[in-house]
Design brief:
By secondary structure, this protein is α/β, with parallel strands linked by helices. The protein has three domains: 220 residues, Rossmann fold (3-Layer(aba) Sandwich); 69 residues, Rossmann fold, CATH 3.40.50.1100; 79 residues, 2-Layer Sandwich (Alpha-Beta Plaits). Helices cover 44% and strands 19% of the residues. The chain contains 17 helices and 14 strands. The strands form three sheets. A six-stranded mixed β-sheet has the order 1-2-10-7-8-9, sandwiched between helices. Strand 7, helix 9 and strand 8 form a beta-alpha-beta unit. The longest helix is centred in the middle third of the chain and has 17 residues. The protein is elongated, with a radius of gyration of 25 Å. The two termini are 42 Å apart.
Length: 418
């Protein structure tokens, strides 16, 4: 998908260049983690290409956002630093700014939307920031942040549309290409566009032939919408909340249109599969936004087949309850957990007999629910829903056959069946 020429140009001086990104790398060296960039042979075998993962989820605050935030803070004039900074964020940017501002002795206030989860508020406060809750949306929180800057004489640290922030994020590309010089493609999440802009600027300056592919959640194709390539207003529920941005910034849109080769959209099921795949294969926890690169490799296998691909795992801040739900849904999709509705005589021993048959087939029963009042069967029968852990789909079908061969009526229930 050609993007070039679809966004208003900005003066070149407003965007960072390779020298700015190299200077940022020197400036932040030793103050952020130079995260590993490692090949995953197993993922490569599964996805049909060679895959190198850039583990930005291993930063202290578990996100790449530290790079741009720190580069910005380090360039504040002393008087501005002493006055303090304000940032608007519901997640990773807030923690990156809070952590490094505290390290540098800079007063910091973070404005978060009213609906921000408690855990994100607590984590940001623990990193030394004053947190103010304001507005029903990120946009309304941003308005309050700017008003606060005006009242207190503080500097605003933009999460993505700032040249110093973009340059800080671009240091990732320098590290990836130093570790693996012959990469053919870089696959990068896109929210507001700061990460992909910095990476694309650095990568194209070093190796113009290197392909840069951005990835957005299908529910939030903000860049494509701004470029007129998709219709409708972005929005909707997504586990990739870190990139659930309605529109990119002015600078980032220009950088994307001029330097990013293509943008892929991935749906929720693909993102969830990618989270589970990274957890099981790499034993690494990645948030939804951080997993979209792997989701794109999975969904668009022909496009990346046989190529040397670098994927940025941008962050690992995922709520534990959400992660547990994603894992369970992954088990259901892979048929390692199934629900079977078995019709039994409503008499002593019926349930024990069915359970014994499941055990004979080496299934592990994790839940049992009787359906008497809501059953369509005779009053002398009961429907019993078994949730069973299996090895794989073939094993699940083997359990079904074993129950059916014993004369029991068996029905497979999907996620959308009661």
């Amino acid at each position: 998908m050609a993007l070039a020429g679809r966004a208003p140009a900005v003066p070149p001086a407003e965007l960072p260049d390779l020298d700015d990104i190299r200077a940022a790398a020197e400036r932040i060296r030793g103050q952020v983690v130079e995260t590993p960039c490692l090949e995953s042979r197993t993922l490569g075998e599964i996805l049909g290409c060679r895959v190198w993962l850039k583990f930005e989820n291993l930063q202290y605050t578990a996100s790449f956002k530290e790079r741009g935030a720190l580069n910005h803070l380090l360039q504040l004039p002393p008087a501005r630093a002493a006055a303090g900074v304000v940032a608007m964020s519901a997640g990773n940017h807030a923690q990156g700014v809070a952590y490094h501002a505290r390290r540098l002795g800079i007063p910091v206030t973070i404005v978060m939307p009213l609906a921000t989860p408690f855990v994100k508020i607590d984590n940001t406060e623990k990193l030394g920031a004053e947190v103010i809750l304001a507005g029903g949306s990120v946009e309304e929180a941003a308005d309050e942040a700017h008003a606060l800057c005006a009242r207190l004489g503080r500097s605003f640290v933009h999460p993505y549309d700032d040249p110093t922030v973009i340059a800080g994020q671009g240091t990732i590309a320098l590290e990836m290409l130093a570790a693996v010089p012959d990469l053919e493609v870089l696959v990068v999440p896109i929210g507001g566009g700061g990460l992909v802009s910095g990476i694309a600027i650095a990568a194209k300056a070093l190796r113009p032939e290197l392909e840069v592919v951005g990835v957005q959640a299908a529910s939030h194709p903000g860049v494509l919408a701004r470029l007129g390539l998709v219709a409708g207003i972005p929005g909707g529920a997504t586990i990739a909340d870190g990139i659930a941005v309605k529109a990119p910034g002015r600078l980032t849109l220009a950088a994307i249109a001029s330097r990013v080769d293509a943008i892929a959209l991935v749906d929720e099921a693909a993102i969830e599969r990618a989270v589970v795949l990274l957890l099981e294969i790499e034993k690494t926890v990645v948030e939804g936004a951080g997993a979209v690169g792997i989701a794109a490799l999975d969904a668009l296998r022909e496009r990346f087949a046989g190529r040397r691909v670098g994927v940025v795992l941008s962050g690992g801040n995922i709520d534990g309850r959400l992660l547990s739900g994603v894992i369970l849904r992954g088990l259901v999709r892979s048929e390692r957990m199934v629900r079977l509705r078995v019709t039994l005589p409503d008499s002593p021993g019926g349930l024990a007999h069915a359970a014994a048959l499941v055990a004979e087939a080496r299934g592990n029963i994790v839940d049992v629910v009787h359906q008497r009042a809501f059953s369509r069967r005779s009053a002398r029968q009961a429907d019993v829903d078994f949730t069973i852990e299996t090895r794989n789909g073939a094993h699940a079908r083997e359990i079904e056959r074993h129950l059916a061969e014993a004369g029991l009526l068996v029905e497979r229930l999907g996620p959308d069946r009661a």
